[in-house]
Amino acid sequence: LESLSLSIELSKSELIHFSWCHKETCPHINLMYHNTSHHVNQSEAIKWLGIWFNSKLSFCKHMQMVTTKAQCIATGIQMLTNTVKGLHQSHLCLIYNACIHSIMTYASPVWWCGQKLLASKISVVQNK
Prior knowledge:
The protein is α+β, with helices and mostly antiparallel strands. The protein is built from 4 helices and 4 strands, in the order ββββαααα.
């Protein structure tokens, strides 16, 4: 890596084991870099390319983060909807599709398998 003028940021190293086992016996690893050992423990969830992965691949953490972000945006949009001088309904639909829908469906082919729990979390934000 050094020949390419690249370096490793050891403090940003994360480890996750993907397993369906109920027992969480996941060892840590030691990375050797410049003759020093760096201890890396397992993370509960890691974010990679905007998707939160956990060891069971249940994507609950991902949906929690996405729905929280979408609810904050929906609250901001509600401030724009005044009954007297608010935005037109067609403009609100455009804002919804651009801001909320795109956030909630980002990388959905990766995490969506028709789970009812995830669908209920999505519908709560959509109906807000």
